[in-house]
Amino acid sequence: GAVVSQHPSRVICKSGTSVKIECRSLDFQATTMFWYRQFPKQSLMLMATSNEGSKATYEQGVEKDKFLINHASLTLSTLTVTSAHPEDSSFYICSASTGVPGETQYFGPGTRLLVL
Amino acid sequence: QKEVEQNSGPLSVPEGAIASLNCTYSDRGSQSFFWYRQYSGKSPELIMSIYSNGDKEDGRFTAQLNKASQYVSLLIRDSQPSDSATYLCAVNTGFQKLVFGTGTRLLVSP
Fold first, then answer.
1. Which residues of A touch B (CB under 8 A)?
2. Taken in order B43, B80, B55, A28, is the CA torsion positive or negative?
3. What value does the mean pLDDT take over residues A20-24?
């Protein structure tokens, strides 16, 4: 159980375009979803936390107008990178939690974004 | 002071040896602790969780927690080359968010 999927797994886009990444919990209801970014040889950096039906909470330094997060249902959250630039090229990983206190997060397989 | 600290490594061990990975955390109110394994280019996968003081064993893996010392460790017995990866320690302080360490890179040589 506890399977999380992401789509697409890899995307290449031109600078200035917007890219949408989907994160789905396949076999459980995810009250909370998290979006991380990981640059090469660096650790996971939490970007934002989203609860179903609420606005996302962004970490310090993450531009909420650039990284739009929607968590419209208990099984789907989306991250849209607006007006992407080469410096946004990274590995974006989502995770999901049922919201039970102390429970772990289940990670999706990640989306590798390359902005040319 | 970082909230969750790990030695970045690499930790090199020969095949068949015990690999010992360590993690310290700063928030005494932390309730649950996790070890994730991350292969290069892949997302993290959960390998162990531990919630109370003592040892928890699962196959070749043993997690150890000492809340008084704010210390959690992971032992990997009979290490295999396929265990070569980065191991992330994560701590849940009770607000749903996991705080991750920077990870320890483990290299198991044949």
1. 32, 34, 42-44, 46, 49, 91, 93, 97, 99, 101-110, 112
2. positive
3. 96
Average pLDDT over residues A86-111: 90
Distance CA A72, CA A80 (A): 14
The token pair that represents B45 in the structure block: 């996968």
B1: pLDDT confidence band, cut at 50, 70 and 90? Answer: low
How far A107 CA sits from the closest chain B CA (Å)? 7
> Is B77 touching A (CB cutoff 8 A)?
no
- Residue A103 per-residue DSSP state: -
Closest CA to A107 of A63, A46, A20: A46
User: Which H or E element spans position B73?
Assistant: strand B71-76
Q: To the nearest whole number, what is the mean pLDDT of chain B?
A: 93
